């Protein structure tokens, strides 16, 4: 699948799963110095490969008649600072709730380790600005996900599929935490408990084979 075809496929899935509504949210995928990104002002389930713009890593438009997503500077800032090859940004409900009420998502489930543990909320700045791009880049450092204050979430991956799955996981973790708060006080995993999970994952016990 070409980069632009991938944007159409995952854009459609993002709408289907309710991670975005209307024209909110944007995706990009990088190959070399080129980044295919979703266009501004088009719902993610209405994309076709030819309308998806391609920019270079410096932000110059290389292909396409439509303007790239307004959040392209944030995507480019993350690409410049990491080895990410794909980025997904949505305004998903539970991610946005956490991003409007907290400064970080505490690890209440060990799967948070797949995103780098605690997910930080990047400081608020107006959408599309270099300030927001810098804040997100700082919050993402060493992690695969960040939340954006009063805005939404962003995840990275080595492929668009990986970045998309990270977005689904981020939303699931936020939902568990937010719904958990309505039942009681969610217990937060300690560093010791998280380290034990890493240890277990690195050294899985082998089942003895019956001879
Ligand atoms: Zn946004």
Features:
211 residues; globular; binds zinc ion
Question: Topology of this structure?
Answer:
Blueprint: H1 3-16, E1 26-31, E2 34-37, E3 54-56, E4 61-63, H2 72-81, E5 86-90, H3 93-101, E6 104-105, E7 119-122, H4 130-140, E8 145-148, E9 152-157, H5 160-183, H6 191-202
Parallel strand pairs: 7-8
Antiparallel strand pairs: 1-2, 1-5, 2-3, 3-4, 5-9, 6-7, 8-9
Helix pairs in contact: 2-4, 3-5
The chain binds zinc ion.
Rg, Cα atoms, Å: 18 Å
Strand order of the largest sheet: 4-3-2-1-5-9-8-7-6
Shape: globular
Largest sheet features: 9 strands, mixed
Mean of pLDDT: 96
Contiguous helical run count: 6
For the terminal residues, how far apart are their CA atoms? 45 Å
H/E series, N to C?
HEEEEHEHEEHEEHH
What's the helical proportion of residues? 25-40%
Low-confidence regions = none
- Write down how many β-strands occur, each being a DSSP E stretch of 2 or more residues: 9
Structural class: alpha+beta
**Cofactors, ions and other ligands in the entry:** zinc ion
Sheet-strand content, in percent, reads 15-25%
Summarize the structure.
The protein contains six helices and nine strands; from the N terminus they run H-E-E-E-E-H-E-H-E-E-H-E-E-H-H. Helix content is 38%, strand content 18%.
Description:
By secondary structure, the chain is an alpha+beta fold. It contains six helices and nine strands; from the N terminus they run αββββαβαββαββαα. The chain has helices spanning 3-16, 72-81, 93-101, 130-140, 160-183, 191-202, and strands at 26-31, 34-37, 54-56, 61-63, 86-90, 104-105, 119-122, 145-148, 152-157. It has a nine-stranded mixed sheet with strand order 4-3-2-1-5-9-8-7-6, sandwiched between helices. The N and C termini lie far apart (45 Å). The mean pLDDT is 96.
């Amino acid at each position: 699948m070409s980069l632009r075809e991938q944007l159409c496929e995952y854009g459609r899935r993002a709408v289907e799963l309710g991670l975005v509504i209307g024209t909110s949210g944007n995706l990009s995928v990088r190959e070399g110095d080129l980044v295919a990104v979703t266009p501004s002002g088009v719902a993610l389930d209405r994309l076709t490969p030819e309308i998806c713009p391609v920019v270079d890593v410096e932000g110059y438009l290389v292909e396409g008649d439509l303007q790239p997503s307004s959040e392209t500077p944030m995507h480019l800032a993350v690409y410049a600072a990491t080895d990410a090859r794909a980025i997904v940004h949505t305004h998903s409900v539970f991610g946005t709730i956490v991003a409007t009420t907290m400064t970080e998502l505490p690890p209440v489930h060990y799967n948070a380790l797949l995103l780098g543990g605690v997910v930080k909320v990047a400081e608020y700045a107006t959408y599309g600005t270099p300030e927001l791009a810098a804040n997100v880049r700082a919050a993402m450092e060493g992690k695969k996900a960040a939340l954006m204050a009063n805005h939404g979430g962003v995840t990275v991956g080595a492929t668009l599929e990986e970045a998309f799955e990270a977005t689904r996981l981020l939303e699931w973790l936020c939902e568990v935490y937010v719904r958990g708060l309505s039942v009681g006080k969610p217990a937060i995993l300690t560093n010791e408990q998280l380290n034990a999970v890493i240890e277990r994952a690195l050294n899985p016990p082998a089942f003895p084979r019956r001879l």
